[in-house]
Amino acid sequence: MQSRPRARIAGLVALVALSLAARLFLLLARPLWHDEAFTVWAARLETPQLVAALASDSGPPLFYALERPFARAAAAPARDPLLRVLPFLAGLALFAAAGTLPRGPARAWWVALVACFALGNLYAAEARAYAPLALCGLGIFLLSALGPESVGRLAGLSTLAAAALWTHYLALFLVAAALCLALGLRRIRSGIALGAALVAFGPWIPILLAQPPDAMAWMREPTGATLPAFLSALGGAGRIPAPFGPAPPPAVFAAGAVLGAALCVLLLPAVRSDAAVRLAVVFVTLVLAFAFAASLWRPVAFAGRCEMAVLPVWMWAVARAAPGRRALAATAALAAALGLGTTILVARGPHPRSTQASAVESVARAARPGDTVLAGPGFYLPALLAADRGKLAARVVALPAGDTAHPGWFVAWPLKPEDVRDATLAADAAPAGGRVFLLLPPAYSQPALMGPLEERGVLRELVRQPDGVLTVWTRKS
């Protein structure tokens, strides 16, 4: 009789070991992509400069401030995995939340789901705020909707909610959902604690409201594509954002959506009979609904990312409800298997360095003091980071010039006359013997720009790829 529990424990240990191995492999082997490079750059700034940089770029400053020691320790690209340590630890901390569930099978289900769901594994190995946000989201739900309203728990709720708000804008939906639940349950003191967190976030609200619309223009997607992707994430898979690597086959995404829908239906009996499960499901629904509704104003409901705010709460509800419910348990097991399989597929896939990062590295080897790098959309941030780290000796100039104010995002508008003017000014300002390296997307490397430069000097195209062109300009002798 004892062999069966031992086998279950051994299986659980194997799942956790496989999950952590995949997370560590992604943490160590996958090169940083554009948004992670922004984390490195922003985290290296002093607080006043960081606040100024975030005024039109990315989110609140807390995550970048917490990443600061890791960013400063990562003085060279070989140490870039250090930037992922904090999210990795946040993902690891979720396992400890098993103690919030009843003893026995519910805790085993929790550990299995945390180990297997794909988005949880992937974001635990990415240098961005989603894994810490997920941990905060679970804590906010547990402290605001369940348990006694003791002084210590209320203080923890207010602190955690404020920390979440200062970490990522999606936390606004978490706090709003928690506030709705607290007021609906007449947990007035919890509502006051959440209100205090919102007040503490107040100084950042004007900066949030002033964010330029173009900062999120790239996120727009058809409404019909968002809801199936939400369901797929709840079913263990989800939409895998391109920076993680090649997307799994469409059948994997579809299977996740089917399993997510099935879990929603199979949870209904538990929703009726278990108040904690009911509150968790309502919390998840509110957060995703708020994000979806807000997208009518700004495109914030980007499937494959915003589910991370509530994914642990969803897994908590499934883990609590699964024991004793065979159909739900079988579906949860399928979702876990699909999630772990998706994680392994993504981890095994190729993870090449981006053209932008490789091109900047090539320029860094060739550039000398007195040279200028004219960096177009997509190239400016990696060039800026290389210069900040002391790896690129040349002066870095953005093209278009407006990208200087927001290195973390760009919109590759068609080449404009003012862009041509700025490029010729950079060439005219080059000192004797100085060169101008042009790192540009192909849409910018065209006669309208190259013609005026060629009139002033000699252009030599060094590399041309479908997503980038490297050219060097030297003054005519």
Task: Kindly list the characteristics that best describe this protein.
477 residues; Rossmann fold; 22 helices; single chain; 2 domains; alpha/beta
What is the gist of this entry?
The protein is an alpha/beta fold and 477 residues long. It folds into two domains: 3-348, no CATH class; 355-475, Rossmann fold, CATH 3.40.50. It is built from 22 helices and five strands.
Binned, the helix content reads 55-70%
Shape from CA axes?
A: elongated
In terms of quaternary structure, the protein is single chain
Order of helices and strands: HHHHHHHHHHHHHHHHHHHEHEHEHEE
Number of strands: 5
Rounded mean pLDDT score: 92
Give the percentage of residues in beta strands. 5-15%
Description:
The chain has 22 helices and five strands. It is of the alpha/beta class and 477 residues long. The chain folds into two domains: 346 residues, no CATH class; 121 residues, Rossmann fold, CATH 3.40.50. Strands 2-1-3-5-4 form a five-stranded mixed beta sheet, with helices on both faces. Strand 4 and strand 5 form a beta hairpin. The longest helix has 27 residues. The termini are far apart. The mean pLDDT is 92.
